[in-house]
Amino acid sequence: MNELLHFRTPLRTTPFHPRTAALNRLNRWSPWAGYTTALCYGDTAMEHSAIRNAASLYDLCPMVKYRITGPQAEAFLDRLTVRSVARLAPGAAQYTIWCDDEGRLLDDGTLFRHGPQDFLLTCQERHLPWLLDSAAGYDVAIADVTADVAALALQGPCAAWVLREAGFDVAALAPFRLADFPFDEDRITISRTGFTGDLGYELWMKPWQALPLWDLLMRAGAPRGLRPVGSEALDIARIEAGFLLTNADFVPADQAVREDRVRSPFELGLDWLIDWEKGHFTGRRALLAERDGGTSNWALVGLDVEGNISAAGSLLYLDRRHEAGHVTSACWSPTLKRSIALAQIRRPFDRIDRLWVEIYALRELQYAKLMMRVRPAPRPFFVHPRRRATPPGDW
Amino acid sequence: MTARSVIVIGGGTNGLACAHRLATAGRRVTVLEAAPAMGGGAAAAEFHPGHVAPALAHLVTGLDPRVSAAMALARHGLALSAPLPTTVLAADGAHRTIAAEGGGASGPDAAAWAALHRRLAAHARALAPFRLLPPPRLSRPAPGEALTLARLALGLRRTGREAFRDLLRLLLINVADVAEDELSDDLLRGALAFDATLGSRLGPRSPNSLILYLDRLAAGGTAHWPQGGMASVAQAMTRACAAAGVTLRTGARVRRITVTGDRAAGVELASGEMLAADLVVSAIGPRSTFRSLVGPAPLDAGFFRDAGHIRSRGAAAKLHLALTGMPDFRGADPRARLLVAPSVDAVETAFNPVKYGEVPDRPVMEIVLPSAHEPGHAPEGRHTLSAILQYAPHDPPDREAARARMLAGALAVLEDHAPGLGALVAHAELLMPWDIEDRFGMEGGNWHHGELAVERMLFLRPLPDCARYSTPLPGLWLAGAGSHPGGGITGTPGWNAAARIIETGA
Ligand SMILES: Cc1cc2nc3c(=O)[nH]c(=O)nc-3n(C[C@H](O)[C@H](O)[C@H](O)COP(=O)(O)OP(=O)(O)OC[C@H]3O[C@@H](n4cnc5c(N)ncnc54)[C@H](O)[C@@H]3O)c2cc1C
């Protein structure tokens, strides 16, 4: 293959493509980080229902993955990210974020610790230049392994059952833990992580293991209604779980063109992740000043929206008049039977329960303007004890 | 309450000026200098039995009057010569002289030179106060600062609309254009081009080269020979520091700045000795300070990256010759500042090869003969020559070959201007930029501890986040040539840094 001809294939396919393409009855695809991925296989409502009521398979390959190894990998990651990496044990994973010097969010992601000196960082956007800049002076190796590691999310109340049927005993695996399992004369890694706020697992494998594993899981899961799901169904599940999506709920600081688009962890409700005691990390002094000076301008909140129309992209008003913020993600939640939203609100309006949302509802080629009351709602919107139960219940 | 303690890293003229001012303000100050003697670029070295040369800097061009006064340098033994005239050497002996104060030049272009000098000196006068001021903070100036800034800006505007426009035009222009527009005498053009680019890694045709000439004029513009040689500057400063109660330690190389909590807490010496202090002031280069002494852990990644990008490629080499007799530069006064810069093109041609890590065939140079000024620099009847050569590559592929070529080129140029000089050479020492780095700790051998260029001046020097001498690491300050207003034997950055430390109560 001539590398210079990449423009002829602007989107790559994932190792699961032979299966996902055959199943994608609507041929609905969308680009994700340079790959073509299924938006919906046939029925988003059914797919979302599989996530919450049975089991679902989601092709996670385009997720950006960095393998970080070396004697100072831990020290490097402790300086890069805001959480304590020293306290992350091998075999465990953590949700984390990292900031620029000004304490503005660059991205969030999941950090998996495979060994004392071996980590995998997964995230939505590419960050290699920043990681390499941050690595100056550290004895670490950083490699973009996005294409070298295929990944699947198996989520839903029956996920553990499906894995057991497939020969993987994950009963002992607690949330945010990972372990290796033999498969196909080799091994795969299974972590109890996910983007749905439900019982679920993520499976990490070599690209050539992708199709055999897919086939095995689909066979094993058939009796409990396992089905592949597209990004539309997953997005509803992640909003119900209250998770942020990069470039939907915030713009990474290094991508923002407009000066006022960058956000700090305080402004995104992520400050709870910061470990102030662990020593220095990039952005710490700026964040400390923001904390002590109370200079945050925005707040990210969960909202319950009156009515049943998604408030996606709408503006928020105080007393129906003064612009106070905007909705970043929203949906009608099939699980909760409520219209829910994530929103950025200019402080201090996040503390004033007099907010309204102006929704433009498209009805047969005509927009109807709705002014709906919104109320603060705790995140996650959807919580279920099965998410954390170990061993997982048999659903 | 016991006095707060300060460690100053580096006993160059800036470290000493800073230490003195802090001690005078009641701080308990220790200066740690790696070399066996204080002075840094202002030290002296015996490079051949009986021959002593200024180790690096050989003329004083901008010693801060506030520093000389406060440190009472005259009382501590410093005596500067009257300003030296400059002789621009011509291979045919038709030299040009430029008067010590800069305005008068000999030759056919005297009137044009005088007019140009008047014009540039007026601009320099308007800019001079900026050199002495700690760089203002543009985004949120404190009330007092805003006032000073407004006053200085007004000062610039008051020079008149025409003059102000002229200044704005000249700020970013290259010196070759000005030389060729305003002068017709190649020798004077060459001298202007040389003086503008001395100490920088710019050729006369590089953009923004004229501002360095304005800066040189703003710093004083006159060149002085310190009686007893350059080392007497360091000695006078050292005595002043000792008198002010500063603890002075030589042979004390700092290996690491220690950090406790979120604060610089002291230093670790190469010997392993640990020293604690309330404040650490680094008067060595900012890049080495952050990249080598502090390291990445207590700094933000973006800042640490930017510190690594501070341009630190030196382009000046230093030549010391032990001569068995007085060379004859075709009748030129050996006590003048002698320039070999016969034209703009000669300077530009000497610059071209360093872009590719190569050595010019015919370097341009500034020559001083210490032994012509006074005894003590060479044995009776013998002489010592000190020359700054431009341009030298900072990191050529074959360093020894580059040094040999540079030396051969320099000696050939000298022979052309002082026939018979080659036969007088008993010993030659040539310090290339990497030697300067090894010996003085100046990264890349850079004159200014990081290139002095428009994009790295004032509040951008050395980086926006440490342009006011404080750094992102609490308790760590900068005070060397890498900070505003830059290099030279001036003491200004050190003095300004101390002022900021005192003023902020750090
Ligand atoms: C070839 C050349 C010729 C020059 N000629 C002139 C001239 O004629 N006139 C002029 O005004 N300027 C001249 N300069 C510029 C001038 O020498 C410098 O700008 C000036 O010396 C800077 O002063 P400073 O005090 O900031 O630093 P320095 O003079 O560099 O002093 C820093 C000191 O820190 C010490 N040090 C370094 N690292 C450590 C460490 N880890 N621990 C402890 N100590 C350490 C060094 O030994 C040194 O003594 C010349 C420069 C060069 C390169």
Polypeptide structure, described:
The complex is a heterodimer of chains A (395) and B (506). Among the domains of chain A are: 9-63 and 147-240, Probable tRNA modification gtpase trme, domain 1 (Gyrase A, domain 2); 297-377, Beta Barrel (Elongation Factor Tu (Ef-tu), domain 3). In chain A, 18% of the residues lie in helices and 33% in strands. Chain A has helices spanning 17-23, 44-53, 73-80, 128-135, 159-165, 210-221, 231-240, 284-293; strands at residues 28-32, 35-40, 56-59, 64-69, 92-99, 105-115, 118-123, 141-144, 150-155, 178-183, 186-191, 200-205, 227-228, 298-305, 315-318, 322-333, 338-346, 355-363, 366-377. In chain A, the strands form four sheets. Chain A has a six-stranded mixed β-sheet with strand order 10-11-12-9-3-13, sandwiched between helices. Chain A has a six-stranded antiparallel β-barrel with strand order 14-17-16-15-18-19. A five-stranded antiparallel β-sheet of chain A has the order 5-6-7-4-8, covered by helices on one side. With 506 residues, chain B is α/β, with parallel strands linked by helices. Helix content of chain B is 36%, strand content 17%. In chain B, the strands form four sheets. A seven-stranded mixed β-sheet of chain B has the order 6-5-13-14-15-12-16, with helices on both faces. A five-stranded parallel β-sheet of chain B has the order 7-2-1-11-17, with helices on one face. Chain B has a three-stranded antiparallel β-sheet with strand order 8-9-10, covered by helices on one side. In chain B, strand 5 (86-88) and strand 6 (96-98) form a beta hairpin. The two termini of chain B are 15 Å apart. Chain A binds chain B through residues 75, 79-80, 100-101, 130, 133-134, 136-138, 279-280, 282-285, and chain B through 262, 291, 295-305, 308, 465, 472. Flavin-adenine dinucleotide is lined by residues 9-15, 32-35, 40-42, 56-59, 61, 253-254, 283-284, 314, 316, 318, 388, 436, 440-442, 445, 447-449, 480-481, 487-489 of chain B. Residues 9-15, 32-35, 40-42, 56-59, 61, 253-254, 283-284, 314, 316, 318, 388, 436, 440-442, 445, 447-449, 480-481, 487-489 of chain B line the site of flavin-adenine dinucleotide (FAD).
